[in-house]
């Protein structure tokens, strides 16, 4: 069999039928969900499925009146989709790298644009960062996830985790910040000196400041969030 033959390509890239975890990394950029029930995912993340699976768009009051108002307030563009049934579901988001967390009663805050999928057993809530609204394009919001079950997030390229230690504040670019431990509450800092350095017309530099004890996940990419005008 030739190195570049079609059969060799198929052998190298075909799906793995022997992995049966609920969430599996089929490739580093494709999430496989071995579905037997329900799963929540980012709208539009489905790229393929095998079996008897039905898809439902998140209804207006699907998660209660409070979350509906928060979603309307943030103007965020990420909508949720429920997949129900039995089969194998493949999810991806613009070629971004997928990371799976198996929460055991812990909590994590994820930038709404970077949340790919989570089990129905996970409790979640939307948190609007009000100080950022109107400063960044579309503002900035995050989803707090807590409980026991699988969560999948996405990053542009390889993520880096920074440890937050008492007495050592960690500053990050909001556009490059993906997630952080649920016990941390970021503050926001405007760096006027940086604005002066790069010129008056370029705007102020906004930074997220994490203090206490926990972790922050960043990516080597500045992602611009656009509000949902529809």
From TrEMBL:
Pfam families: AIM24. It comes from the Bacteria. PANTHER family: ALTERED INHERITANCE OF MITOCHONDRIA PROTEIN 24, MITOCHONDRIAL (PTHR38074:SF1). This is AIM24 family protein. It comes from Lysinibacillus mangiferihumi.
